[in-house]
Amino acid sequence: MTIQRRAVLAATLVAAAIAHPSAFAQKKIVLGFAQVGAESAWRTANTESIKSAAKDAGIELKFSDAQQKQENQIKAIRSFIAQKVDVIGLSPVVESGWDTVLQEAKAAHIPVILTDRAVDSKDTSLYVTFMGSDFIEEGKRAGRWLEEFEKGKPGPINIVELQGTVGSAPAIDRKKGFADVIGGDPRMKIIRSQTGDFTLAKGKEVMEAFLKAEGKNINVLYAHNDDMALGAIQAIEEAGLKPGVDITIISIDGTKGAFEAMAAGKQNVVVECNPLLGPQLMSAAKDVVAGKTLPKRILTNETVYTQSQAVAALPSRKY
Ligand code: AHR
């Protein structure tokens, strides 16, 4: 092509871009996100992280709150497929029952990114990556802390457990991880275990029932999340007992509420589970649209906070 022809072509393209700017603008990535619900402070922080990261990344977010119901999440995914979004993000309320809808997304060539919670599908080609915490390890960390705390003390050590949502990955794995560690210690016994559905209100209600049935027989509460522990703390105080002293309190998440309870001596330890997954999700969505291959598992880095560590970290705690 001659220099003159090239100049004419360039001028034509510039003129076209001025006349029809939208045709030349880069297409925004559209991400449909199927969230679990709004059951806990952790979840609120997770939702805020996803919404603000989408804004920062210039990604159009279609957000659906399933109110802890799998059927609502399945409906949301089908609607994302019908709308031809570029990527689907899913935090599955329960582990099982996803194959059909994920196959539909695959058939529509829409990549699915799992965040926070896993699915138990055998076919791992149904999602491009799973990013989030190792829930078994969280349960183990809770168990190891308790073993250390009770070292050299006589038994029995009677434990009550508040489980998360039935069938959810964190409830299954946190139960298993904890049991794996304390199972070898003959002093430790889980005397009651029931779901509190990851909510403060349910945690309180179930702890009231535990206290009614067991009286002063309870030494330790292991709650699968902070909200249930905070509800249980209220129940323990209303029963005239001192949480953190009469009953050792262990929970998972690391939200401000739990840190405040630790600072007040009402809770003994929290195992961290980080909800701030938004930026990681947006960069994964961009990578997958750009055709990059993602690692199948992206693990979140987390720690354990004791009372003194919680006091130090409280002023800068973000959620
Ligand atoms: O899946 C993460 C868990 O879900 C958090 O521990 C809990 O607080 C939430 O509801």
TrEMBL record:
Its main location: other. CDD domains: PBP1_galactofuranose_YtfQ-like. Transmembrane segments: none annotated. It is found in: Cell envelope. It comes from the Bacteria. Pfam families: Peripla_BP_4. GO terms for cellular component: cell envelope. Keywords: Signal. Residues 36-292 form the Periplasmic binding protein domain. Residues 1-25 form the signal peptide. One of its GO terms (molecular function) is carbohydrate binding. Belongs to the bacterial solute-binding protein 2 family. PANTHER family: D-ALLOSE-BINDING PERIPLASMIC PROTEIN-RELATED, GALACTOFURANOSE-BINDING PROTEIN YTFQ. This is ABC transporter substrate-binding protein. It comes from Scleromatobacter humisilvae.
